[in-house]
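Example 3.2
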Amino acid sequence: MKLTLRQMEIFLNVVKSGHLTNVAKEMKLSQSAVSMSIKELENILGRPVFDRINKRLILNEVGRAFHKEITPLFKKLSDIEYEFKNSLNKGTIRVGASTTIVDYLMPPIICKYMNSYTDVKISLKEGNSAEICELIKEGSIDIGFIEGVISDHEIISERIGVDELIVVTADKSINDTYYIDSLANKKWVLREEGSGTREVFLDYIKKSIDPLNIFLELGHTESIKSILVNHSCLTCISKIAVQDELRDGRLHKVNIHNFECNRDFLMIYHKDKYHSGLFEKFSYFSKTMMMQMLNAR
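Structure, written as tokens:
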């Protein structure tokens, strides 16, 4: 094999940037070295992979086919290099989780794992479900935990458990049993677009309500709870997220006829992700502990 990993890396960076100067600066190489690497790659393949248009390098038909084939291979090789630098109980694993999971499930899991394996470091990124999926596809995180449904061929998902969504409010006058459509004109506070909670709820009610009076959209569950306590609004939220507020009476569950809105908690990772010993051990630990926590609630 004449192609080198360095040539693949330079090729992929040039595709991303389109300018040799930018790639040379980012990779701390001379521009001539970057240019020579591209020329050598094209010589090995026997034909050009770029069109030179307006001082930019644009993938041609051959280049697009080559890029499609080489991207997952390079990603997997990069993963292997990264993971083999970490032993089973030493290294760093990058985790991403949606807001509900970060706030109410993930902290004890991470603390217990790091206390048990002191040489393992865990970085945690928070985002909505759509954002966590993008981080997985970019290779920015190793493993993700989200809610809802995944329909992306690049992502593998494993079901962990079921989360119950309920409608809550602080408004004492909303104290009867209702049909969901009779509440459509009330003021609703929901999570932002891309949120798994929002997506599941709106999909569940779409045959009964069109449209819902969305009064406010917020990016965090705690912000929604704060608004609810001080205003006459409703929201649909994970039951896990409002256990304290329900217990002390700051919020109450709204009784709704035939309302059974559930969503899955999922563990996700890229289909080309290399499964190191550290990855396998942490994913099994997290999945098992999260299942136990959900069953206990």
